[in-house]
Amino acid sequence: MSALGRVVRAGVGRRRVQTVVMTLTTMMAVTASVLAAGLLVTSQAPFDHAFAKQKGAHLTVQYDGSRVTAGQVAATAHVSGVTAAAGPFPVLSLRPHVGRNKSGMPLGDHLPPMTIVGRADPGGPVDDLDLTTGRWATGAGQVVLSDENAPFGIGDRMDFPDLPGGPSLTVVGLARSVGASAEAWVSPAELTALTAPGAVPAHQMLYRFAGAGTDAQITADRAAITAAVPPGSMTGAASYLKIRLAASRASATFVPFVITFGVLGLVMSILIIGVVVSGAVGAATRRIGVLKSLGFTPAQVVRAYVAQALIPATVGAVLGVISGNLLSIPVLSQAKSAYGTGGLTVAPWIDVAVPAVVLAAVAVTALVPALRAGRLRTVEAIAVGRTPRSGRGRAVRYLLGRLPLPRPVSLGLATPFARPARSATVAAAVAFGTIGITFGVGLALSLNAIQNGLNRRTPGTVVVSAFAFAPPAPGTDPATPLVKPAVKPAAIAAKISAQPGTRRYFSTGQTRVGVAGLAGRTTVIAYEGDSSWGSYQMVAGSWFHGRGQAVVPSGFLRTTGAHIGDTITLTEGGRSAPVRIVGEALDLREEGMVILTDDSSLTALRAPVLPESVEFAIDLKPGTDPRAYLDSLNAALRPLGITAATNSGRLSGTVVAMDTLAAMLTLMLLAVAGLGVLDTVVLDTRERVHDLGVLKALGMSPRQTVTMVITSVAGVGLLAGALGVPVGVALHDHVLPVMGDAAGTRFPAADIAVYDLPVLIPLVLGGLVIAAVGAFPPAGWAAHTRTATALRTE
Amino acid sequence: MTAIIEIRDVRKRYDEGPPALDGLNLQVRAGEALAVLGPSGSGKSTLLNMIAGLDKPSEGAVTVDGLRVDRLGEAALARYRRERIGMVFQFFNLLDDLTAEDNVLLPAQLAGVPRARARARAAELLDQLGIARHARAFPGRLSGGERQRVAVARALMNRPPLLLADEPTGALDSASAADVRELLVDLNRNGQTILLVTHDTALAASSATRTIELMDGRISRDVQTVTR
Ligand SMILES: Nc1ncnc2c1ncn2[C@@H]1O[C@H](COP(=O)(O)OP(=O)(O)O)[C@@H](O)[C@H]1O
Ligand SMILES: [Mg+2]
């Protein structure tokens, strides 16, 4: 081994603390950067990535099983323009009952119809499913559910008591289909078992086309297939473009905040690497002097020290890539639910690029102090550490010493001034952490406020629907009429009025009318009764009062260019009714193209609400037990064939995913900031070990030592908090409207102004807490170093 | 007269090599100025560290001023060092970033002595040791002898019954060394118990009332020189 090699090896081995700190810092920086870069990359067109990966179906088609054979359907795979096809798979639409479950679902409850597909294999040339948990349903009585809004978890059961033999399915897995081809999958044999006598399952066929970029192309592709099968046998066809639009809207909502966290994580990592590497190499200055006095050339010295930094950094980088990829599993799975797509992984190039960039940063950072040391005159270098350091910070130290503070506190407070550059960098890193935490906390608070606002669309403790809500199943034509007579609203109202616990109620019903100046028809929600206690959350203006006033969501104003105060004209069959917009409400349904008004506004139009859309919102008298009320009301409603339900505040999966993701990323920034402080304090303590020994010899107690070390970062922490919180608040106030914009809405000011004093104070102190927690372990070590050993370190 | 230091069968082993102290017994009475002589590596500093509670013996008992130093916990040791001993080192061990006065004040501040009283005591000591005009100077500006005077002032700040000094003249030129020698004699004349580690025989001869010599961790000679 060369002399140089031996020096490097001895240096790495001997300065164990620096080596460990450097490894740890690189590992943390690489972990955070892999996560951050992974998130940044996946937030670019996440739907398209997932769609490509799963070979998603451009068109999901359903055929009437009694009009066309499986063979005829299979032959459509050869229609020109079709590049790949899967199926036909047998499909049923069934209404399961809640079976035994651990998800807290009420046993026996009737669920909405579910599209169940019989598929032997989750893979295939099209719609290659992502099995997110559990395993594929291969045996009898097994089912795999779509992991998007699945009501059940693994092991839960769904019953079909209406079918012969009353079959029951146990959930064995959750899977995701990027094109939402089904809500449940069973084995083909199980599907046959679920088919009622005399019924014929439909056929599902999944296609990919050569040209599928636009609605027009998809329409042409669909026409080509329709021509290949008997007329009228295609009962529904769903284009991926609709799902793509919804998904890109969801991900666009996410991207601003993911980018914010990603960039913060990267910047912090770089700052901390800078501090630790230059600190560790700088600490070796005296040894560098000794080496030079032994005849090493400056170039050799520089090389020795850069290598000494690179060895632990490489180990740290490898560990960091591993832990970054491990941590990316939960983080990206949240991102996945948030984006509404599947199959996100850290791109392989990130695993190469991130450590390469970090190691280059280490080398460059190490080079600066190494060069400085290499240039230093040997005598000076040897003298470093024994003769007084540069007099930086002495004036501050002197002044702080005059303050009526305990000595350990004033000594600690003065410490950062001895190394202003390092302290400033650490303060910046903690400030970035504080920005992230402030932003994350505000985001979670705002999202919850928005969610609560959105939940106000369905007010009341108890709700009654004139018709059990059944959304059109995926893959079927949404226009397919639902044939079942709805109960007359007046009859329901009578039953509700007769209930002793009823305090007040109103009903809503939907109709679709023309709006002067707009093509097509627009949904109107007509209110009957006093709805003032159950209004939407308002962005601006006020709720409507009586005839001729209307409230619209932000999306409506944006699309039509209308403003509050404008009058719009509703039309129906040549009749018209003007309504004045008095308020802007928070609502995201139908892109916000909805008009809310009193039903008296529609009288002149003679546009009755759809009977099956009528819903009642009921507020109970104080002290009424909702459960008992519900039982009694349901008994009264039973002859009408409908049921009431308690109004459980819905929690959107997207909001939950956003909250979870924000929490995870906030934790990541916290960890980076905390470790950054820890690493720096370890270096500081190592450099000051001799002074610490002296102080202990003079009678500094362990508690005083801990106090001194912690106060040495307290100023940095407080400063970071004071700087980071306002920036975090500003960032939040800027990013939220951008997210809203992506979602097509404005947010109520109250949902954005979430930073009350009880939130702000802990946030401002947050920097202090990060710093104190990061400084605590090295403070403990400092308090327990052997004084005799410390004093021998000359 | 009772012993202020009582060392019984003290053995100290480090991880490698022969024991640094090998069954040492020693009694020091209040008012004595004991010089510990011996070649480099004979265990002098180790002995001093045991007495100062900076390190613990592997075996044996160290009692100072009635306290079993080897049995004290970290917090109690800190109090012991503040109240019962003052330490002076070969390389001064002043904090470079603090003025002479602030260095001297440290032990009182760590002990929580009221500010006014601490400052008065520091002023008195700086004056008594002839370095009052350097009170606001940083150690880097002072000569070796001046620095050692600051260190002695700091050691005496809390009026400890016992002053420990490890090679206090080891880093000084001969004039400064003579200066410090005189200072120690003065202090001892005024009743200060001193334990002085040195291999400077002149220092031992002039300032000690008793001299012991260590050899491989044992006392090889114990001579009463002066009775004060
Ligand atoms: N912290 C330590 N770790 C290991 N060995 C030590 C330590 N301190 C002292 N020694 C060893 O103990 C012996 C006595 O050292 P010391 O008391 O410093 O001698 P002196 O002060 O008389 O020169 C020496 O061999 C020295 O190497
Ligand atoms: Mg020694």
Short descriptors:
heterodimer, A: 794 residues, alpha+beta, 4 domains, eleven-stranded mixed β-sheet, 23 helices, globular, B: 228 residues, alpha/beta, Rossmann fold, 2 domains, four-stranded antiparallel β-sheet, 7 helices, 10 strands, 26% strand, binds adenosine-5'-diphosphate, binds magnesium ion, Macrolide_Exporter_MacB (chain A), transmembrane (chain A), membrane (chain A), ABC3_permease_C (chain A)
Shape, principal axes of CA atoms of chain A: globular
Oligomeric state of the chains? Answer: heterodimer
The number of strands of chain A is 21
What characterizes the major β-sheet of chain B? 6 strands, mixed
- State the secondary-structure class of chain B: alpha/beta
The bound ligands are: adenosine-5'-diphosphate, magnesium ion
Element pattern of chain B in H and E = EEEHEEHEHHHEHEHEE
Radius of gyration of CA atoms of chain B, rounded to a whole number:
17 Å
Transmembrane segments (chain A): 20-41, 254-284, 305-326, 346-368, 426-447, 661-685, 706-732, 752-776
Family (chain A): Belongs to the ABC-4 integral membrane protein family.
Pfam families (chain A): FtsX
Protein name (chain A): ABC3 transporter permease C-terminal domain-containing protein
Give a nutshell description of this structure.
By secondary structure, chain A is of the alpha+beta class.
